[in-house]
Write a structure and sequence with these properties.
This protein has 226 residues and is mostly helical. It has helices spanning 2-22, 24-34, 40-63, 65-72, 76-96, 107-114, 119-128, 131-139, 147-169, 171-210, 213-225.
Length: 226
């Protein structure tokens, strides 16, 4: 029963951690701007491929996370702290930054619209699977000890991809209903949640270092030597 509970906890934890970072509601105006002028079928095709690329990118970092950490000599607590600082920075920017009118297009949007295929860049990378989402995904490798744990995390990523697809497919209606002020307010709420997630990652990393058996043994030996 405990294994089943842990399985569902990993799925839910993945969804809760990734969904505020990917934030499909806040990405809706950007998606509409990038795909402006495309037919409905073309826009849906671009969205399907973007969500597929997002899953592939995140799963690749999940599976290869241990190898990446070993190759660069990274520790789990260090990864949690670095990822937490990055995620907290993103959340702080969303929370404290000035409100932005989603109906305006910047230069990046204009360049993206000029591309023939925008499903991978900038839709999948970095809009849907940016540095924050990748850092959180790699951080989940510390919670996976068996292949069933990886399966649970992958299922969580798939659920997030489905939610993202449905939300962005209905993006025209979403922006129309919520409006500019609603989108800005939603961005602030999501920013606060992301900031909390980032801070918690840092706390977990610091606790991991403080409770490391090797470190505790070294401190104990030092105290006894005195």
């Amino acid at each position: 029963m405990s294994n089943v509970g842990h399985f569902w906890e990993l799925i839910l934890g993945t969804i809760v951690a990734l969904l505020p970072l990917i934030n499909p509601l806040a990405s809706a105006p950007t998606f509409l701007a990038i795909t402006e002028g495309d037919s409905h079928e073309r826009r849906r095709q671009q969205l399907r491929m973007a969500c597929l690329y997002m899953v592939i990118i995140l799963v690749s970092f999940l599976v290869g996370g241990t190898f990446i950490m070993g190759f660069f000599g990274l520790s789990i607590p260090g990864l949690r702290i670095a990822g937490g600082l990055l995620v907290a920075g993103i959340g702080s920017t969303m929370l404290m930054g000035p409100p932005r009118d989603p109906t305006t297009n910047d230069r990046a949007h204009e360049e993206a619209r000029a591309k023939r295929d925008v499903s991978f860049s900038p839709l999948a990378m970095p809009m849907l699977s940016g540095p924050g989402a990748i850092a959180v995904t790699i951080g989940f490798t510390s919670l996976a000890t068996h292949w069933i744990d990886y399966l649970a995390i992958i299922l969580g990523i798939l659920v997030v991809a489905i939610i993202t697809y449905v939300t962005l497919r209905l993006s025209e209606r979403v922006v129309l209903v919520i409006g500019v002020l609603g989108m800005n307010a939603l961005s602030k709420v999501m920013g606060f949640l992301i900031l909390c997630i980032g801070i918690q990652f840092v706390v977990n990393g610091v606790l991991g270092i403080a409770l490391d058996p090797t470190l505790l043994k070294g401190i104990r030996d030092t105290v006894l030597a005195k």
